[in-house]
Design goal:
mainly alpha
């Protein structure tokens, strides 16, 4: 059942998600695409880059719930906008990997920090103050 805490949390989520002031061009683009798979793809690529994992396009198609054609369209769209880049495997040229551009990854991290701080009141910037 709804209570004040849940109500306030949901209001904070709505205000934060729809507050486009200060968001990067990339995050605005993702939200304006009106397709949750773009955001999922971007976050997956960002978390994979943190773990230094290569993201194989075929594995990505298995992971996402949209069609393979939709994944191809999303990849090509993000490539055209220079938000991601693609490279072929050294041994098997049919295998392709995609990566986020560094600036794009930083945009996602900044958005995550901002959203978490606004919605949950948690500061993810790792800035600590020491009191003596």
């Amino acid at each position: 059942m709804m209570n004040d805490q849940i109500y306030n949390y949901l209001i904070n989520v709505l205000e934060t998600i729809y507050d486009r002031k200060g968001e990067s061009k990339f995050m605005q683009y993702l939200f304006n695409m009106d397709n949750p798979h773009y955001i999922t793809l971007a976050i997956f690529l960002c978390t994979s880059s943190y773990k230094n994992k290569k993201v194989n396009v075929n594995d990505l198609k298995k992971k996402l719930t949209c069609s393979d054609r939709q994944v191809d369209i999303m990849i090509q769209t993000l490539l055209d906008k220079n938000f991601i880049y693609k490279e072929n495997d050294n041994i098997d040229k049919r295998v392709q990997y995609i990566y986020l551009m560094d600036a794009t990854c930083k945009d996602i991290v900044a958005w995550a920090i901002h959203t978490c701080k606004k919605v949950s009141g948690i500061d993810l910037t790792l800035k600590r103050t020491h009191q003596v």
